[in-house]
Write a structure and sequence with these properties.
The complex is a heterodimer. Chain A is mainly α. Helices cover about 70% and strands about 5% of the residues of chain A. Chain A has a domain of about 190 residues: MetI-like fold, CATH 1.10.3720.10. Classes of the chains: A mainly alpha, B mainly alpha.
Chain lengths: ~270, ~325
């Protein structure tokens, strides 16, 4: 709004108070990871490395932390790559080519974008068992990337639609094939879209809990989400360790949050699913 | 322009088989991977959910399920806990939705009424619960709601206890709400930003107070975004169970916070009881899938389908 109410500073203070719980949560996570004990938001005693012993030893029969860390990294990167490439290819066809059933295809993508995919989890479990992809990284990667494809196609179609097509036309006239035009001309030109979808897919896969929780059982293929959750389900949870693992796990997200706030606001403001 | 491109690539317009390939070939190549994945993990699962719900599939009969007709649905209707679960689901969706939309609206209205620099910072902070990994977010909730002297809420209220167990409903609604509010906040913010400045100046010249401007100028312009957010979040809340699973696992006690989607999930896939009722879970999931299909097709009709599928720009066929 162009005109601020006369006491807008009061409004700002009110908003800050309203947002206090979120700030308190973040502060709690950082303090609890670093200190021996925390009462409320007050650290008691001195900073300790005891909470971080998961970094150099397996705790309570769990695999060393690099196993879930590596799995999660591979999972997130491959989900983002598969999603970005396959969604871009489909979006390019829908944006640039005319073929029978095009409107119906786009309609299907839109319906699936609104459709709550998590309701299919029981059937997906069954299908992965039948395909022999249950308890494999490939299986969860394919499922995660597929469930976000409608969103990705829809987002990338918007970027291709917006692209001026003179360059592509010139390339086609010069005899380049559709395939070459896509990879050499169109794909590099939608870099902002690839970056936005890639960031979203990375963050979403990095945090994913339900899919690995349901579709992975061996501890050698555990992810950070299920690894951290296993600390919470113990009879007497050690909150110092849980907070340290949580802080470690959330670190890439927090760094991105601090460096790229405005960028993230733009991505998530652009109609990404919630 | 499309015609001139078509004329410039005459070799692709050959008749017969070559023509067919030219017309379907490239679209098929580009669409193949996406179509295969959509088939495998959307369309086939929809049919599979229906099929499994009509069989006696369980841990024992996993490879050879037998057709049992509607027996799972009859068992579902006979479940004495069904009314409880239905009420829980309605309660969870209604209250969380009210919090999400209401809080989203308040945050959007207030954060656009202050200097943009501060407004952006507030909005970014509210984005944090959404981008944090859900399990980390829940660890924070568990930590803040512990008994005294550790838990912040116990310290502030002076009542020591596990607050998630003491107030499970408040916990799941607020935990979902703090994540969900940012969705409405961002959509409402961009809607408010797109209102022409003239309207605000005109209202100010007419002597409207801030409250009157919001009531008479801003809210009428937010009618569609509010409908969209409400519709969208109703469907996603109906099927989501992640935070409930992590926070209360449907408890404490019998089914205190068990909603439809969580119950379906646990019947089919959580094997702590040693009695995995896969078919029964699929029967419950069938309702969610059907509601999901009907409602999302309905959205397509409201939110201006024709404009969205306008013809493409470059055309060589």
């Amino acid at each position: 709004m162009p005109l601020f109410p006369p006491r807008w500073r009061l409004v700002a203070i009110g908003l800050a108070l309203l947002s206090l719980p979120i700030a308190a949560g973040l502060i709690w996570l950082i303090l609890s990871g670093l200190f021996d004990r925390v009462h409320g938001l007050l650290p008691i005693g001195s900073p300790t490395l005891q909470n971080w012993r998961f970094l150099w030893e397996g705790i309570g029969g769990r695999p060393p932390v690099y196993v879930p860390l590596l799995n999660t990294a591979v999972f997130a990167v491959l989900v983002a790559a598969v999603e970005v490439i396959i969604a871009s290819m489909a979006a390019y066809a829908i944006s640039r080519m005319s073929f029978p059933g095009r409107a119906a295809y786009l309609g299907l993508v839109l319906v699936l974008h609104a459709f709550p995919a998590v309701s299919l989890i029981i059937a997906i479990f069954y299908i992965l068992r039948i395909l022999g992809l249950f308890d494999t990284l490939i299986g969860v990667i394919l499922v995660k990337a597929s469930l976000e494809l409608p969103l990705g196609i829809w987002l990338m179609k918007g970027f291709f639609d917006y692209l001026s097509w003179e360059m592509e036309m010139a390339a086609l006239v010069d005899g380049m094939s559709r395939w070459t035009v896509f990879w050499r001309v169109a794909f590099p030109l939608v870099r902002p879209g690839l970056l936005a979808l890639g960031t979203f897919a990375l963050l979403s896969a990095w945090g994913e809990f339900i899919l690995p929780f349901t579709l992975i059982v061996s501890s050698q293929r555990a992810m950070m989400a299920t690894y951290l959750q296993s600390f919470l389900t113990e009879a007497f949870a050690d909150y110092g360790v849980a907070a340290a693992v949580g802080l470690f796990y959330a670190l890439p997200v927090l760094v991105l949050f601090i460096l790229g706030q405005r960028y993230l606001l733009n991505i998530y403001g652009g109609g990404v699913k919630g | 322009m499309a015609r001139s491109v078509a004329a410039a690539v005459p070799q692709q317009r050959a008749a017969g088989v070559g023509g067919l390939i030219a017309r379907y070939g490239w679209p098929a190549v580009f669409l193949l991977p996406a179509t295969a994945l959509i088939f495998l993990f959307f369309l086939i699962p929809v049919v599979t959910t229906l099929y499994l719900s009509l069989t006696n599939i369980s841990i024992i009969t996993f490879r050879h399920p037998q057709w049992i007709g509607l027996a799972n649905y009859r068992a579902l209707l006979a479940d004495p806990f069904l009314p409880k679960i239905l009420i829980n689901t309605a309660r969870y969706v209604a209250f969380t939705l009210a919090f999400n939309v209401g809080m989203g609206l308040v945050l959007a209205l207030l954060s656009t009424s202050i200097k943009q620099r501060y407004g952006d910072q507030i909005r970014a902070l509210w984005l944090l619960p959404r981008i944090l990994p859900p399990v980390v977010y829940v660890v924070i909730w568990q930590g803040l709601t512990r008994e005294a002297p550790f838990g912040l809420i116990s310290d502030i209220t002076g009542v020591s206890g596990n607050w998630i167990f003491a107030r499970p409903w408040a916990a799941i609604i607020l935990a979902n709400g703090l994540v969900g509010a940012s969705f409405g906040m961002l959509i409402f913010t961009s809607a408010i930003r797109s209102i022409p400045n003239d309207l605000f100046y005109a209202a100010a010249v007419d002597g409207a107070t801030a409250a009157q401007t919001v009531r008479r100028v801003v809210l009428p312009m937010l009618k569609w975004p509010i409908m969209f957010v409400t519709a969208y979040q109703t469907l996603s809340l109906l099927t989501s169970f992640e935070y409930i699973l992590l926070l209360t696992d449907g408890g404490p006690g019998f089914y205190t916070t068990t909603v439809w989607s969580l119950h379906a999930y646990k019947l089919a896939l959580s094997n702590y009881s040693g009695n995995v009722q896969f078919g029964l879970g699929a029967a419950m999931a069938t309702f969610l899938v059907l509601i999901g299909i009907v409602v999302s097709v309905f959205y397509l009709r409201i939110f201006n389908y024709r404009a969205l599928v306008a013809e493409p720009k470059v055309e060589v066929n």
